[in-house]
Amino acid sequence: MSERNRVRSFFALVYLNGILPMIAQPLYLVNTIASPLAFLFFVYIASRGALLSFGIMGGLILTILSTGTGIQADLVHYKQDLKFQDVVVASPVEAPVYVAGMAFSEFVYAIPGLVVFILLSFGVLDYTLLGSLTLFATLVLVWAFASALGFTIATYFQDIRETFVFSPLISLVMTTLPPVYYPLTSIPTKYRWAAYLSPTTYAADLVHRGLCAVGSACYEAPSWSAEALDWGVLVGLTAVLFFLAATKARWREP
What is the pLDDT of residue 252? Predict the structure, then answer.
C-alpha cells in the first residue's frame, strides 16, 4: 500500500468516525462533555469554588480519557454489527492505519469538549508557555494510552453491550476516585499509595503543577524528581500498552 493511500485511508476513517457523526447528530457532543461538566459542577458546589481550577483540569483529563476508552464501542460496533473490520482486513489497509485513523477520529470528536473546558479555564488557570506545553503533552499521552487500552480490550469483545460495562468502569477507576478533580494533598499520606495505582494521578499531578491557580500558590512546591517520575510513568505505560496492542490484540478472527 502506497504512502498516499495510507494517508487517504487515515483521513477517510477520521471523517467516517469523527467528523460525520458530529455533522449528522450534534447532540452526541453533549454526551461527550456531560459527565466532565457534572463533576465540575459538584466540585464547585462542594468546595464553594475553592477547587474550581482543579475541577477544570480534571474535566480536561476526563474528557480526553473517555475519548480514548470510548473507542471500544465504535470498534466493536464496526467489527460485530457492521462487519466493517472484516472489510478492512480483506483490503490493503494495514492494522496500524486503521487503528490510528479510528483513534484520531475519537480525538477530533473530543475537540469541542476540550474547547469548552479551555474557555472555562481562562482567568482561572495560569497559561504560561511551559504550562501549556505540559498540558498538551499530558493530554496527548492520556489519549494515547487510553486508545491503546481501549483498542486491545475491544478486540476481545463479541457484543457491544460488553463495552457498556468496561468503558464507564475504566473512567470511574481512573478519573473519579483518583485525585484528578481535587489535589493529591487532600488524601492522607498513608493512603496515597492507592492513588498512585492509577496513571491519571501522574497526569493530573503534571497538569496541576504546570497550571497553578491564578492568584494562589501551587498546592505543592515544584519538584523535578516528582515531575520526572510522572513523565516516566506516563511514557512507560503508553509504550507498554502500545506493545500489548501490537502483540496481543485480535486483529483477525482466530
Answer: 57
Tally the residues of the chain.
254
Report the distance separating Cα 117 and Cα 57, nearest Å. 8
**Rounded to two decimals, what is the model's pTM?**
0.85
| CB burial readout 59-83, b (16+ within 10 A) else e | bbbbbbbbbbbbbbbbbbbbbbeee
CA distance 242 to 128: 31
User: Which of 64-73, 115-124, 197-206 has the highest mean predicted lDDT (pLDDT)?
Assistant: 197-206
Question: For 125, phi and psi rounded to 5 degrees?
Answer: -110, 155
Predicted local distance difference test score (pLDDT) of residue 220: 58
Distance CA 3, CA 94 (A): 11
Phi, then psi, of 213 in degrees rounded to 5: -65, 135
Q: Which amino acid is at 245?
A: A
pLDDT of 219: 55
Domain ranges of the chain: 3-248
